[in-house]
Write a structure and sequence with these properties.
Layout: H1 2-31, H2 38-63, E1 77-80, E2 87-92, E3 95-101, E4 111-118, E5 121-125
Parallel strand pairs: 3-5
Antiparallel strand pairs: 1-2, 1-4, 2-3, 4-5
Helix pairs in contact: 1-2
Length: 131
């Protein structure tokens, strides 16, 4: 609950300047005698609510942790983005990692399994293809 309250507060802070500008525009138009139809107030309110919802969802998504972390990446399968001879790039769970192969050269596009994590480099193995 406290985390969501913090996200709501950040979202509101991001919208404060837009709300101030909208209020200034409406007050200036009113003071100049320009008639403002009721639907304009409704449209402005709906627009602010929509922008608030959009910013809230963006900020909430930024707080979520990545599904792949050092504790749960070992054992996952991935694909080689570049050839591993013995180092290269692999994609595991939608993220690209530097990797080193334990079993020699691996061609681009081959499937690998994560055996270990050393710093920010994955140690991968590959299954021997049946012939």
């Amino acid at each position: 609950m406290r985390r969501k309250l913090g996200v709501h507060f950040k979202t509101f802070l991001l919208l404060v300047d837009e709300l101030i500008i909208a209020v200034i525009i409406f007050v200036v138009l009113w003071r100049l005698g320009v008639p403002i139809p009721f639907w304009a107030y409704i449209l402005a309110g709906v627009g602010c609510a929509g922008l608030y919802w959009f910013l809230y969802r963006v900020l909430l998504d930024q707080r979520r942790k990545s599904p792949v972390s050092s504790t749960n990446i070992i054992g996952h399968k991935g694909r080689c983005v570049t050839a591993l001879d013995p180092e290269g790039l692999v994609r595991v769970q939608g993220e690209t990692w530097k990797a080193v192969s334990q079993c020699g050269a691996v061609a681009e596009g081959d499937e690998v399994t994560v055996a270990d994590l050393q710093g920010l480099m994955l140690v991968v193995t590959t299954q021997a293809k049946p012939e």
